[in-house]
Amino acid sequence: MLSIENAVQTLKEKNIRLTPQRHELINILSKGNKHWTVEELYQLLNESMPSVSITTVYNNINLFCELGLVKEIQFGEALSKYEWKKEDHYHIVCSECGEMVDVWYPALKEVEVFAQSISKFDISSHNLQFYGTCSNCEQK
Amino acid sequence: MLSIENAVQTLKEKNIRLTPQRHELINILSKGNKHWTVEELYQLLNESMPSVSITTVYNNINLFCELGLVKEIQFGEALSKYEWKKEDHYHIVCSECGEMVDVWYPALKEVEVFAQSISKFDISSHNLQFYGTCSNCEQK
DNA sequence: GTCTCTGCAAACCGTTTGCAACGCA
DNA sequence: TGCGTTGCAAACGGTTTGCAGAGAC
Fold first, then answer.
1. Which single residue of A104, A120, A123, B128 has CA 20 to 30 Å from A132?
2. Stated in angstroms, how far is B127 CA from C3 C1'?
3. Integer distance in angstroms from CA B48 to C1' D5?
4. Domain with CATH 1.10.10.10 in chain B
5. CATH number of this structure's domain B4-84
6. Contact between chains at B122 and A112 (C-beta distance less than 8 A)
7. Confidence band of B25 (pLDDT split at 50, 70, 90)
8. Which among A103, A118, A122 has the least Cβ separation from residue B133?
9. CB contact under 8 A, B103 and A121
10. Where does chain B hold its CATH 3.30.1490.190 domain(s)?
11. In terms of C-beta density within 10 A (0-12 exposed, 13-18 middle, 19 or more buried), how is residue B100 classed?
12. Is 90 exceeded by the pLDDT of residue A128?
């Protein structure tokens, strides 16, 4: 799990300013080990910085993705979610409410090798998602 | 692979009219064993029916998905692609041009079982995509 | 003081909706 | 002939862009 200090260091090295908005966004993202939409981050950020704009959230979440501080998780028709950078893993998503949890399972390298062997593609990565119903939605 | 006759039969059973637009769209989709975006289907349809509107393509591709004649393939930030209904399989997509091919690999049921065992989710399905570079883009 | 960053407003673009005219059954 | 369908235009909604003023360093 990436530390706040490392993230701040990365910004400094690239001469990217540590604005209050960026600092607070890093604070939110690096705690909680969760998955947020842009809108959710905007709401959370607004609690401590009421004047922040959603443009700034977009600007910085994209910047953080480019810097490798944050990973974008894209899922079917749902809005992208973002998580603080950690080791590669898969995700389970609730089809009802969008709730998302991590799955730590060994990377399916042998399936990648198979896909490469039967295609004319040079395979570089793969993505695996699970769909289901979370316990909260199950009860309803 | 679903036949045109079966598709037409499904429409009849549900009292859905077989308009020329629908017939031609089924013709395009059921041949070629490819993956198309809405825009691509619209272009192809326009070759034989110049007056067709993109609204009609949206209406019918969504209808066909609901009827199970067509499967929507959603991929990260890319536009959805659609394929004629066939047995479940995975996809490889070219990160450069979006070119897509099928991968017939046994469903990863044991990974689903694992995901279920370590989460509080009732897992119903999963999705696996491979990313890479197709031979065309490799040469460039 | 400089130059990046913020935040507002407008643009963007794929998709959906409303609706009047059309045409399949 | 009736009602489902088409196709136009407008609306929609998440995201990006342009830009003038603010502010980090």
1. A123
2. 46
3. 19
4. 4-84
5. 1.10.10.10
6. no
7. very high
8. A122
9. no
10. 90-139
11. buried
12. yes
